[in-house]
Amino acid sequence: MLAYALRRLAGALPTLFVIVAISFFMIRLAPGGPFDRERVVPKEITDNLNRVYHLDEPLAQQFVRYLASLLQGDLGPSFKYKDFTVTELIWTGFPVSLQLGGAAIVLSALLGVGLGTLAALRQNRATDVVVMGAAMTGIAIPNFVMAPALTLLLGVYLAWLPVGGWGDGGLRQALLPVVTLALPQVAYVARLTRGSMIEVLRSNYIRTARAKGLPERITLTRHAFKAALLPVVSYLGPATASVITGSVVIEQIFGIPGIGRYFVQGALNRDYTLVMGTVIFYGVLIILANLVVDLVYGWLDPKVRYD
């Protein structure tokens, strides 16, 4: 398994290089620059800034310089946050995003698997219709609509929960953004679990287990559950990285100081190094999440081998 993991990581390096290259040139093709301001700055000052940050060099030379720094683990300085490097900014925002996204994905997995299993066991009954109807609603309504609606209802009208900020990340402060971020994932996981569980329950080895007289609880937990989780695990791997690093809308709406806000501000300010750093960080997380999914497959399905 270790050899397989190392091969996967080595094979991911070209993918990461493509991500770096595309991101590097795309952000520089966007109109404006990191030192453009509303008020006019003397050309001498702009030229000095470009020279200090090597922005006066040809793009190819800048790219080679950036790759050399990247190989040394240096993501460069932020153009807008003068006293911070990109690495410092990422590690400042990532714990908050990890706490927010981690709580959302755990809630999604627990609720989604539970509801999906319940719907599969009550197929075509009222419970199944209600669960799947709620799941379709959760998929159809995007976060930027659900977040203001929940804020208005639970925060403004009922005054049960704070409507913004993160504070110390306590339960009351985190509950509203976590639930808002988790709802679409709950819907996806519930639908995947239901479909997979229905297929597994109709398989021959489940019929055999029931024919032998095994209690339904044992049949479900020991024989059906692991097999039904395979497509769910496939989805949860990239979804975990996406939720942890992609909660940009939620962080903006609730004023949460996570890595998503830095990404948005970096894009708006044309902070090239900050945008590049967050994109690379996102890419590495997604690659690692997919690797973890493949390794978990071997535990869930004994037929999977990593030879």
Structure summarized in a few sentences:
The protein is mainly alpha-helical.
What labels would you give this structure?
307 residues, 12 helices, MetI-like fold, single chain, 2 domains, mainly alpha
Description:
The chain is an all-alpha fold and 307 residues long. The protein has 2 domains: 2-71, no CATH class; 95-269, MetI-like fold (Orthogonal Bundle), CATH 1.10.3720. Helix content is 76%, strand content 0%. It is globular and about 85 Å long. The protein starts with a helix and ends in a 7-residue tail after the last helix.
Q: How many individual domains?
A: 2
Name of the CATH homologous superfamily of the largest domain? MetI-like
What is the CATH third-level topology name of the largest domain? Answer: MetI-like fold
Mean of pLDDT: 80
Helix content: over 70%
Radius of gyration, whole Å? 24 Å
- Residue stretches low in confidence (pLDDT < 50, at least 5 long) are none
CATH architectural type of the largest domain: Orthogonal Bundle
Order of helices and strands: HHHHHHHHHHHH
Task: Tell me the fraction of residues in β-strands, as a range.
Answer: under 5%
Blueprint (SSEs and pairs):
Layout: H1 2-29, H2 43-52, H3 59-71, H4 86-121, H5 126-140, H6 143-157, H7 171-201, H8 204-211, H9 216-245, H10 248-254, H11 259-268, H12 272-300
